[in-house]
Specification:
By secondary structure, this protein is of the alpha+beta class.
Amino acid sequence: MSTLMLTFGKLRAEVQRYMGFGRGTDWDTLTTDAQGDVLSVIERGLRQFYNPTPLPNESSAHEWSFLRGLGVVTTAAPHSSGTISTSSTSVTGSGTNFTVLMVGRTIYANGESRLISGYVNPSLITVDREFSSNLTAGTTYEIYDFDHELPADFGGLKGQVTYEDGEGNVPLQWINESAIRIMRSEQSIRKDEPEYFALVPKTVVAGTTSQQRFELTVWPAPDAVYDLHFAYTVMTDSISDDPSANADDNNYPVGAMVHSETILASCLAVAEQMIDEFNNPGKMQARFIERLAASISYDRRNALPDGFGYNADNSDKSTHVPSRRRLQTVTHNNTIYP
């Protein structure tokens, strides 16, 4: 780990100095309002850096390579042990062995599907709404695993969702969530290898502290256990969860040493907007844009392969690995695209 990396403590001290609170002033001696202003500037600066506006002459914002993560969700095979009966929204089982992991899955019985909304014990679960008529004891059923909660830091999918079938990685086709609902409504429940998926935002209950989460829903119903692999954009956490106790002074913002100056410039640009915009308009913002361009250039050079490969027409039937001389880059508006 580089000793030049910017820590939260160092970043806080620089923001304190710029805002006139004194770089060496002990944090605990600042007023609550002053502490709040400093922390607000830092968090706004970090958000500005992690989600930058497009640079001049570019049509889209840069996506940082270091905000990429790898995820996996594991499906479950259909469950059909024992039999059930129903009364209102209660489903009573005999030899069923229900588990709490089944909450959120779909139970299919007597030609109808219901969402499992609660778990009581291995012989009793609840569903989101009643079946059209109560099911008598001895009714057969199956529970399917369609919906899978994605990581809490999931910020968007990057590339394909795949699973390993023993011969290679098989990609799923990304479709609209409504298309999956149509397939489920127009066809009987089909069990097979997953073929399609959609991303669905989960409902956020008003008045709670829960964050927005996403689910990955698949079709057809997985007929076995599958590990679905994907890459995604990471929504990073705050580095200042407990500043009053100085416990976070050595926390590092995501971005490593090479982006430390850009992170600092972003925070000082926000501080400038807050306290010094009229006396010193735009100097720190201009500095941030300058540093942002440098960071983006570095990220593009060092986080991507040297090239996409030789663009041949195969007329020479060549099978050898192309020479590095033939791996060229493309430049547009002074931006290098490998």
